[in-house]
Amino acid sequence: MSNVSFIRALEPSGVLLPYFTALVPAGFPSPALDHMEHKLSLDELLDLHAPHIYVVRVAGDSMTGVGIFDGDYLIVSRGITAKPGDIVVACVNGEVFVKRLCNEQGQWLLRSENPRFAPRYILEGDELLIWGVVTNSLRNHRQHA
Q1: For residue 80, which of 31, 90, 91, 140 sits 20 to 30 Å off, Cα-Cα?
Q2: What is the pTM of this model?
Q3: GO:BP terms for this protein (predicted)?
């Protein structure tokens, strides 16, 4: 069962948003937040300039240990060579997963970041395709949206 839904490839938007360089406290607001310092491009912040970037939406809770939750959107790059330790979109025998790519003593596996899920070892005869490396995640924090 797949745990990602493919949305589409991203294209640069060119939209610049106000950016406040003051750190935002999680307690009381700072008066310094009234001072906008410059504009920020989400294209630059998320490295969306390349045509090798696409978006997927996560289904399930196997990656909650790294802050990836059900319904989150992931920015995925096909232009990065996956290395052990990377979070990847992987296809094993036609089944698509978001997992951490690991190599333990020469054995490749896809590890969940939730102890309730066992790792998926890549066995002889399995077809493993890495469809991209996850670079960022996006979450909607409005509960009623």
Answers
A1: 140
A2: 0.76
A3: DNA repair; regulation of DNA-templated transcription; SOS response
Residue 2 binned pLDDT confidence (cut-offs 50, 70, 90): very low
Which architecture, in CATH terms, is 4-10+35-138?
A: Ribbon (2.10)
Cα 139 → chain centroid? 10
Catalytic, out of 83, 99, 112, 137: 99
Q: Cα torsion at 58, 61, 67, 68 (round to 10°)?
A: -10
Largest CA distance in the chain: 61
From the candidates 2, 62, 83, 137, which is the catalytic residue? Answer: 62
pLDDT at 35 over 70: no
99 catalytic residue (yes or no): yes
